[in-house]
Amino acid sequence: MNQDVLLEPIGKDAFEIRLQRPERMNALGVDTCKALLNAVSQASAQRARVVLIRGSGRAFCAGADLKERQGMDLAGKLTHNAAIRAAIDALAGAKFVTVAVLNGMALGGGLELALGCDLRLAASGITLGLTESRVGAFPGAGGTQRLPRVIGASRALQMMLTGEPVDTDYALQAGLVNEVVAPEELDARARALAALIASRSAPALAAIKRLVYAGIEIPLADALQVERAALPEILGSADYAEGLAAFAEKRPPRFTGVA
Questions:
Q1: Which of these is catalytic: 132, 185, 217, 227?
Q2: Which of 8, 16, 23, 112 is catalytic?
């Protein structure tokens, strides 16, 4: 892993991936994206249940590194975009729960990165936006598809067509972020949430993610069948037996299952 990205444990089964290019607002260069992809793979290998994604300095992520892209030919630009997409898709497809901790601005590919996560916590006073139309492009790392699924087509279109960022009040009201907290409280809240999620059963967490994301893409009747098909594995698991025993004995469960 290069120095652009740091993976570190923050508790039992919980990790943090930190983007470390504060001088470039944590912009996503090709090497940064490769390092991010590697960090996701390492977190998975270490059987993470929850991973926080955070930026260093005053930004979460300002998006694709446009200074790096400016000197590229078309093939290079497409390769750069593919590297960003690969990292975001890896986060989106991970079995562990991902939480974007938006400590500062999340623009362009930075917001696309956050949209690839399951949950988003934001510090009050930051801005979020898919700003690609300002430079004659469109959000090509999943933004045109993920944003409408989160906040609806009409709101997503307005954000993307104007390229104008929104504030945290709007983001919370629209459902773009799950919570907004004071900047000085963001890290503590994120780590508390990570600890809570990490205390749950890994197979159950993975099943919830898989069922929700698969279900919203298909008709309700089909989705309900997929849900029912997943029940035997979970209800027959050692973690569920432990959960029932812990409930009966009025103690915290000690889950050991691996997703």
A1: 132
A2: 112
pLDDT tens-digit series, residues 140-165: 999 999 999 999 999 999 999 999 99
Q: Which three-class secondary structure state does DSSP give residue 17?
A: strand
Which residue from 86, 88, 120, 126 is spatially nearest to 106, judged by alpha carbons? 126
Report the DSSP pairing between strands 50-55 and 97-102. parallel
Q: Which two tokens stand for residue 188?
A: 């503590």
How many whole angstroms separate alpha carbon 237 and alpha carbon 242? 9
Active site residue 112: yes
Q: DSSP for 86-131?
A: HHHHHHHH-SSEEEEEE-SEEETHHHHHHHTSSEEEEETT-EEE--
132 carries an active-site annotation: yes
Strand partners, 64: 28
CB 163 within 8 A of CB 130: yes
Closest C-alpha among 79, 76, 97 to residue 34: 79
Is this prediction's pTM over 0.90?
Answer: yes
